[in-house]
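[job 4471] stage=fold_predict status=RUNNING
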Amino acid sequence: MAEINWSREARRDLKAIAKFFERSSPQYSKYIVKRIFDTVSGLRDHPRIGRPIPEFEAKIFRERIVENFRILYLLQNNETVEILTIIHSRQDVSKHLKRKP
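[job 4471] inference complete, writing structure tokens
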């Protein structure tokens, strides 16, 4: 079972997503946050389930998609998953990852 670590940036991203949707639909805000958490939790048992991020060659950088959001993570030795950031699918990945592959 892999350990899950959330980066400071990923936690900020999740809070910003929740806050954004809270204004128009508190129910949807709770729904999308739960979907993201559930998807990340699934990485404990299946850390390689995410696809490699197409913009990068390094296969240790992977992603899971939840609706219009990309959960970007770093897979280290199949034992540790670091959630790097959560971005909208229209955003440029390279501008959001401080650590370049």
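[job 4471] summary: The chain is about 40% helix and 30% strand.
[job 4471] exit 0
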